[in-house]
Amino acid sequence: MKWKPSRLSHLTIQEQIVDWIKSRIECGDWTVGTKIPTQRQLAAQFNVNRSTVQLAIEELKADGMLESKMGSGVFVANNSWNVLLDRSQPNWQQHIESSIYKPNYRTIQLINEYEQYDHVIRLGTGELSPELLPTKQIEQSLKVISLDAKSIGYSSPQGSLKLREILCNYLKKRDIQTSPENILIVSGALQALQLIAMGLLEEGSVVFHEQPSYLNSVHPFQSAGMHMIPVSRNPNLSDNMRTLKRKRQSLYYCVPTLHNPTGYNWSLEEKKNLYNVCNELQIPIIEDDVYHELLFEPTSPAIKSFDASGQVLYIGSVSKTLSPGLRIGWIVAPSPVIERLADIKMQTDYGSSAFSQEIVAHWISTGLYERHLVTLREQLKRRAIFVENILDQQFKEIATWRKSEGGFYIWLRFNEPIVNKRLFLDLLNQNVLINPGYIYDSGDLHHIRLSYAYASLEELNIALTYLLEHAR
Amino acid sequence: MKWKPSRLSHLTIQEQIVDWIKSRIECGDWTVGTKIPTQRQLAAQFNVNRSTVQLAIEELKADGMLESKMGSGVFVANNSWNVLLDRSQPNWQQHIESSIYKPNYRTIQLINEYEQYDHVIRLGTGELSPELLPTKQIEQSLKVISLDAKSIGYSSPQGSLKLREILCNYLKKRDIQTSPENILIVSGALQALQLIAMGLLEEGSVVFHEQPSYLNSVHPFQSAGMHMIPVSRNPNLSDNMRTLKRKRQSLYYCVPTLHNPTGYNWSLEEKKNLYNVCNELQIPIIEDDVYHELLFEPTSPAIKSFDASGQVLYIGSVSKTLSPGLRIGWIVAPSPVIERLADIKMQTDYGSSAFSQEIVAHWISTGLYERHLVTLREQLKRRAIFVENILDQQFKEIATWRKSEGGFYIWLRFNEPIVNKRLFLDLLNQNVLINPGYIYDSGDLHHIRLSYAYASLEELNIALTYLLEHAR
Question: Distance (Å) from the C-alpha of residue A419 to the closest C-alpha of chain B?
Answer without folding.
Answer: 24
